[in-house]
Input
Amino acid sequence: MTDRERDIDGKEYDVERSSDFAAIPDAFQRLWTPHRMVYIDGGPQAGKDACPFCIAPTLSDEQALIVARGKHAFVLLNLFPYNSGHLLVCPYRHVAMYDEATDDEVAEIATLTQTAMRVLTEVSHTDGFNIGMNQGQVAGAGIADHLHQHLVPRWAQDSNFFPIIATTKAIPRLLGEVRDEVAAAWPRH
Output
């Protein structure tokens, strides 16, 4: 059964209720995110020559939104952030899976992640973090062929449903502004 609802512009759309589907009912509500289908239907990933994580280190830090460079890995802002300050930690080497990374790459990814947490806590007063890797296209990796770890800062009051009900993300700061602030606060060795 579908119900008709209106969005903020007054357009009507169908809403399916999870309780109406076949199977044994459960207590879970589903948030459908059809905008993520682009990652499922996207077909083959771009090759190494078109990989944004291989191209980024060849650009200036400002152009690529890089906040820190290590010997084996680097940190940059996500171009499509879930929250302001959403960082990605990537090895320079074009490798797809975590178990393919070298010990040096794994160690530096971990160290850069810890430093990023400290820097974001200092400059953005975060209350917590979501940290994770989507391994493979089937697991939701937008760029499955180049390993990258997400570091998403969270605040006690940051949860909202804008992306779900209004197809809008509330990102209060410009990417370049956040990059400059995080890069300036990054410890120099």
Notes: The helical segments are 37-41, 52-55, 61-64, 103-124, 162-165, 175-185. The first strand starts at residue 2 and ends at 6. The chain has six helices and seven strands. The chain has one domain: 35-185.
